[in-house]
Amino acid sequence: MTTATEVSPASRTGMIKRGGVLAAVVVAAIALALLQSGSALVVWQSVVTGILTGGLYGLIAMGLTLIFGVLDIVNFAHGALLAVAMFLAFGVVQATGLHPYLALVVAVPALFLLGAAVHRGLLSGRGGGSLENQLLITLGLSLLLENGLLLFFGAEPRSVKLPGEIQIPLFGAVVAGSRLYAFLGAVLLGAVLYWLLRRTRLGTAIRAVAANGPGAELVGINVRRLHTLTFAIGTACAGAAAVLAAPLISITPTLGAQFNITAFVVVVLGGMGNVVGALVGGLLIGLVEQLTTIFLNGQSSLLGVFVVFVLVLFLRPQGLFGRRA
Amino acid sequence: MSTTIERPAPTPVKAPPLRPQHRQLAILAVLVLLAIPLPLLLPPALGAVAVRILIFLLMAVGWNIMSGFGGMFSFGHAAYFGLGAYTSVYLLVEHGISPWIGMVAGMVVAAAVAVVIGYFSFRYQLQGAYFALTTFAFAEALRLIATSSDFVNRAVGFQVPLIQGESLWQLQFAADSPAYFWVALVLAGLAVAVSIVFLHSRAGKYVTAIRDDELAAASLGTPVLRHKLLTVALSAAITAVAGAYYTQYYLFVNPDLAFGASVSIQAIVPVVIGGIGTVWGPVVGSVIMGSLSDVTATLLRTPPEFLGFLQGRSGLDVVLYAILLILIVRLLPKGIVGTLKERWRR
Question: Where are the transmembrane segments (chain B) (predicted)?
């Protein structure tokens, strides 16, 4: 699978065209929402909340898209790993009383190591080969992690409070500070990953392995080690996402499930392996969710997400910004 | 040069060897006969476990037809289980229609939905992970629709109304009646028989050929789309029976019990443990997983001294489930039956 960050001039014009169509659809949807609800303030608040929440989705999906794009693994355990990282962040904050964001120092390296161990122990080598087996192993892992958390922490929800949480006025809408920080964190992490993949030797090697594994092996890249490294980086992203998202949601052992679904939608939408696509896809899904609640009152906001998911799978399985493999 | 023609020595007449499908059907008949007296021998608590195992078995057989024989890895069999459950219970509660008719209606609805989903998936050539994710998305979408539709009582779901006395037509018996087991045994036995006949039928041969090499099969003139859709419909119909009977046995259904992701997983895991794409894999896997979940449940209710902290906590059964799943996939990628078959041949 080629990473979609490689862009030829021809496909660039295609991308710009698709971007234009997408922007038009988004504007039209917002205008319709305006007609539906009749209150500009409500719609604007939804749009701002949607975009900021979408940043969070992008953040969670980034690690997943990296693993999906490079290793071709549908990592069903991503949400469960996210939950593990959240409980880790919760534990660190409880035990030390540090600022919640400082839990990054613990969660990111811990998840990096956990990811490396999972890949080495479970997913590489014999028996971890076929697509179905990888799906089943990551599924088993997610069941194991979720129910392990349930066993030791119980089902009651916990929360991490941000000290000095403020409400920030943003162009007429009001958002919680932590939501804005999470969004900014997502953009920053996206930039870091983009830089890592595009400007460093490691990133070049990762892209080489993604594009052509045997060829990369021939020029002396240790493919197996690089796979482990990529899986670990993807998992570390989940660690970062968990710490940034922890103040925003109630932490339960099964919280990963809901994010898993959204994250897969975002990954498919943005094109596998496309980190920037994941961010854009995340923003779109955040908007879709908010607009669903305006259009379909009383329905779950995830319903709109599924409609978008199925449409994208059928019409552009390579993602909005990817090329057909 | 002798002029007498030597007559060949008369060969003793030997019965021709049984064809594989007849042998498998014979084994099935023996298994069913052996299982009939079980509910009379087992204590009532274990009788309930046996019924659970048979419901698992129905789901596993259904999933195996599509994903094992057909090679179309479904991650959303909860959709068909749930449609079977909801169709039958809706007809029963709202219109007083017998669960047997409801079960058949559920089979039809599930098969129709499966054909629609399958048609679009195959038309847009979704394969592997994308197909799995699509089936998953459809099951989740049905769960959300059920959760937010007044039509099916939202998150509350349905309760099967109790009747006076016992009735086979209403599919209700006394709580610990062996009849529940016998009905489930007949349904599960029929399902396994259908899967055996299907595998060895002309359609089944087409389907396994398509699974092994779709391009080659298509180039030899196999009607690919028709047989894929047939497989999907059959698989969904059998899974719907499991859903309908589940609801009738537990007298209760809601969106999570019917369409939840864990239902899809319960359809997959026994087959993986037993052996994907084999006739007996679902049977072996269901018996193992069903007994295992009972052992862990007992363990949680009355844990031994050193596991005292586990008392009353949920999650252990799934943890064991998960560990077993990972181990089997890692160590016996073909499952128990598949691995044994391979050893036997060598």
Answer: 25-42, 48-66, 99-122, 129-146, 179-199, 229-251, 320-340
Write out chain B residues lying below 8 Å of A155, CB-based.
314
Q: Which of residues 108-167 of A touch B (CB under 8 A)?
A: 122, 127-128, 130-133, 135-137, 139-141, 143-144, 146-151, 154-155
ipTM (interface predicted TM):
0.82
Radius of gyration of chain B (CA): 23
The verdict on a CB contact (< 8 Å) between B265 and A139 is yes
Residues 51-70 of B with CB under 8 A from A: none
Residue type at position B242: A
**R_g of chain A computed on alpha carbons:** 20
Q: Give long-range contacts, CB 8 A cutoff, 24+ apart: A115-120.
A: A115/A81, A115/A231, A115/A232, A115/A233, A115/A234, A115/A235, A115/A236, A116/A228, A116/A229, A116/A231, A116/A232, A116/A235, A118/A77, A118/A231, A118/A235, A119/A227, A119/A228, A119/A231, A119/A232, A120/A228
Residues 6 or more apart in contact with residue A242 via CB below 8 angstroms: A82, A83, A84, A85, A86, A88, A89, A107, A111
Instruction: Indicate yes or no: CB of A137 within 8 angstroms of CB of B330.
Output: yes
Q: Which residue has the tokens 């349930």?
A: A150
Determine, for residues B326 and A133 on separate chains, whether the beta-carbon distance falls below 8 Å.
no
**What are the domain boundaries of chain B?**
20-258
pLDDT in tens, B93-143: 989 899 999 999 999 999 999 999 999 999 888 887 888 888 988 998 899
Which amino acid makes up residue B340? L
Interchain proximity A313–B329, CB inside 8 Å: no
Residues 6 or more apart whose CB falls under 8 angstroms from that of B280 comprise: B274, B337
Asked whether B246 and B166 are in contact (CB, 8 A), the reply is no
Other CB atoms within 10 Å distance of the CB of residue A156: 8
The two three-digit tokens of residue A194, written as one number: 């983009």
Which CATH number characterizes residue A261's domain?
A: 1.10.3470
Domain region containing A121: 41-315
Sequence letter at residue A222: N
Distant-in-sequence, close-in-space partners of B17: CB < 8 Å, separation ≥ 6: none
Question: For residue range B56-81, what is the model confidence (pLDDT) as tens digits?
Answer: 999 999 999 999 999 999 999 999 99
Question: Does residue A30 form part of some domain?
Answer: no
| Distance (Å, whole) CA A143 – CA A191 | 32
Say how many domains are in chain A: 1
Q: Is A293 domain-assigned?
A: yes
